[in-house]
Specification:
globular; Naphthalene 1,2-dioxygenase Alpha Subunit, Chain A, domain 1; iron-sulfur; 9 helices; single chain; alpha+beta; iron; 2 domains; 27% helix; Rieske Iron-sulfur Protein; seven-stranded antiparallel β-sheet
Amino acid sequence: MWHSLVTAGEWHADGQGFENMTESIKALVERRVAGKSLDAPFYTSDEVFDLDMKAIFAKHWIFVASEPEVAEPGDALVVNVGTASVIIARDDNGEIRAFHNVCRHRGVRMIPEGKTMIGNIVCPYHSWTYGLDGKLKFYEHMGEDFKPGCNSLKPVALRSIGGLLFICLSDNPPGDIDEMARIMEPYLAPHNVREARVAHQVDLIELGNWKLTMENNRECYHCGPNHPELTIPLFAYGFGFSPTELDEEGRVAAQRYTDLIEVSRSRWEGEGLPSSEVDELTGRPTGFRTQRLPIDQSGESYTMDTRAACRMPIGAVQDKALGALSFWTQPNSWHHFMGDHVITFTALPLSADRTLVRTTWLVNKNAVEGVDYDLERLTEVWKATNQQDADLVEIAQQGAEDPAYETGFYSPYTEGLVEKFAVWYIERLKDYLA
């Protein structure tokens, strides 16, 4: 469904797109109204999607995996970001590296998307062979003047922060990731992700634009009526509420939550667990936010009974009631760190109306399935929640494609993080278009 942009230029229904595309998109960006959802073409337009891939996903730090996904030398993972394909591999010295998945001979894509184990990186076309350090090791028939040292695989910038792996496809990655690493390492270190192992991973295709996926994640306004499993351990009050609209029962529950935050944070900080809110979501290329929040009832884990799903703690902290440390990054990830397991989420755009959401559950590396944890119990809350969110994103996409769609006001109480995501996104487009 194509949308008329009125002041932003004429949109053609025959698929030709904008007249004077760049100027029209600039006008669309400039007309964004603070506190309101984005104009429909931000969610529906192929041209805007192409801009997103160039201005956002090709220029910023993108969360793609965790260190346990490439735990041993020779472990490799191929992640596709738009038309780019990246090999992430651990070499024989234990160092994790990232390379463009493109042979230097004739540009062939060498390894299919997904996980594998390799001793070398071998091009299937003409058998050019690269070490896990990216250096060209084997080639034939290239003549005496050929210089193998000039034909190593092209590296991709990679950073591990607390065991979470971020890549940047740009030759000039944003330097403010150093600040995010400085702040976040102390928050993440107690959970020892680098020494964890993958218990389970699920890929889900959401039938919506990647921004709708992220906006849905950034609020819990929708949680009460849509997430019966998640709202057993999760306090929706942690994501805001209108105090004047609470009934007596709601006021009591909100006060109980406020009191619990104070008591829990004091205990967590005393145990050496940084827990206070850090909000750097806007005004910088590498936007992020973190905060440790209580879990209801036992306070232990995102499970149906709120108790730990794995009997072996993840990391060095023995206190089971750690609540959940949440870590959000712009543009594409969110994570939850508890005493017994960690869950990571990455959203990767596939098209203007398709988004891959990858969820990974991590546990203590020595934990044994069926002995130390039951996989169904470990995963059931977020499997259900992810599908519920996918259903919501799909109908949000359908709404954005409807001719009746108009931008709507965000709740100042419960959708502040959605507004910050939109602000960050518009900031980054303006920077790119300038």
